[in-house]
Amino acid sequence: MSYEVTLKRKGISFQVDPGQRVLDAALAQGVKLVYACRNGTCKTCVVKVLEGDIVNDPEKSPALFPFERARGLRLTCIGTCEGNVVIDR
Amino acid sequence: MQTSKLSAPALFGVVEAARRMKRFYYVKRSLARLIAGWEIRIPLWEIKMQLPYQLFVDTEHADQFRTRVTELRYPALDVDEDFDPALVRFMEICMDAPEWVESLAAMKLIRTEFVTNYRDYLNHTHPVGDLPSIRIVRAALAEEELLLAQLNAIVDTLLESDRQMLELQLLVLRRLMEATGGISGPSTDLTTVSIMNSLPITLVPYTRPHLPARDARFTSSVLRHEDAPTDPERLRLYRFRTLMDEMSAVEVLCGCLVDSDPTMPWAYFRDMGRWIWDESRHCEMGFEGIKSLGVDPFASDYINNYGSYAFSSPLPVVERIAVLSLLSETATVPFKIQCKEEYEETGDKRAEQMFDYDWADEAIHVTYGNRWAPVLVGNDTDLLGQTVDAVMEKWIAWGLKMAEEPEKNGTYGLFRYFHEGEWKL
To answer: Which end of chain A has the smaller Cβ count within 10 Å, N or C?
Structure first.
């Protein structure tokens, strides 16, 4: 079983396996998402979640401030899915 | 006749080792600030591209000395305080140089003194007990000699009249340095400071300029941003120019370093040193890239960009860092990736690698912004959110205003990108 991540503005989707990082899944399927550090510190890969959620463990992504979390921002490089997700991309 | 162990010269004990290490640390961190301040005011491009490396190495040395002080039973809370007042006054005098040539004299004197003081330290400390210091000082000595050679080579390129001014300043600074007891001391008191203040020297309190100094060889002095051209050859030149433009980031960060509260955690200044150096390397890659195309980097109508500095100069440090790191560097990562991938496809390895390294560095810099911007607002992340939003609005408005006069200011495509909401999260 896998989940579907949809980039709303681009109108494309890709599949993410449970436990798989969203960025890794995107790149493996040829979907270009912007990234840099790949360890949750630089926030280059930040996206806004419109529906569903990308799971970001606050312990592993201390770079994301509370106000950013409250705005629905998540990091794809360390984020996983527990359901289908729509992001503002 | 054998020398009695009791009559052998005393080696540095823990207290003396800590005292000297702390002085090394203070002078190194102050030297980094001196370079940052004058980097903005030095016009000659080749010097501007080289000094950030010196600044970076100084912050690295300062960091190692500071760490070593704390290993020598020195109270951790006092490491960043209670520096020798005469040494403090000496570094203030160096900062208050009348002009940039005299600032180079200060840098040259301090490096020369460090070489002597490091050797003295290695000759007089305990060869086994203080080996952790020896290891640090040996490495610092080797690097210091290289930095001094680089600085001497810079001085050799100056006009004869500038070299004479520099030599004159060296003489005066040397006398002042002697009055302080040199980098290693002994530690002094306020009487020494009053003696130093009585020595005849021209001082001009340092002021950070609203616009950075620019090399007279540039054919244009206007603020320029430009939309990317479509012609592949012009596009390659344009992209190298965007790298060369990163001198503006060097200058923004140098201004931040100079203006920052000195009680900020030391690690902040260490990170700034690395950040400044990285930006200067990007500039140098662009400079060399342009030359590799057979184009004179100075003969251009839009590479003389200092827009980032001009905009952010009057802002509080946190807003400058927010603009540079949290907004522009984050936003330009897709551009770096695009450049890297396109050159990869066309087989232009040299250009590909330039943008690949640039991309990797940007990740570090955004991390620095994320690390230090909250600290600069007292770890109030709600306030940080408001600050980022507010400065972004100011930044976009400034860019769009500049674009109203494209002949003078360029087209500022980057600001339209922000304004049109692609970035807005």
So the answer is: N
